[in-house]
Amino acid sequence: MATDADRCVEAYYAAFRAADIEQMMRLWGERPDIVCIHPGSPRAHRGVAEVMESWLLVFARELNIGIEPKIVGRHETGEIISLVIEEAITRPGDVAPTGTILISQTWRWLDTGWRLLFHHASHGRRSPPSQDGMFVPDGGGNTRH
């Protein structure tokens, strides 16, 4: 049985894969304190206008990558959903995932339903090439912080 968190993730990835700015922005709270950070972004985007602009830039790039999200952490209450998601990324020409994006999201129940308040995505590990020049999906990366 799908939980509210599962439905939020499904809606997010449907909007992302469709590169549909209207669908994406319907997921966000219409509040000045929402925050979105994309991988490699030089800053946090705050407020509806900045968040929308940041997604327009993402959607303007070629999005021909395969994305397989997996929720690796969750906390749900009646009003808040906090998620940690690991995306396995497959790039054109790769036969298996070769990297990850790590995401944290906070959703809040508002009068209009579940709305995204915070989204932070950052680069995870990138698999090193094998001796044959093929990427090894689960190889490499003992990064510590």
From TrEMBL:
Gene3D superfamilies: 3.10.450.50. Pfam families: SnoaL_3. InterPro entries: NTF2-like_dom_sf (IPR032710), SnoaL-like (IPR037401). It comes from the Bacteria. This is Uncharacterized protein. It comes from Thioalkalivibrio versutus.
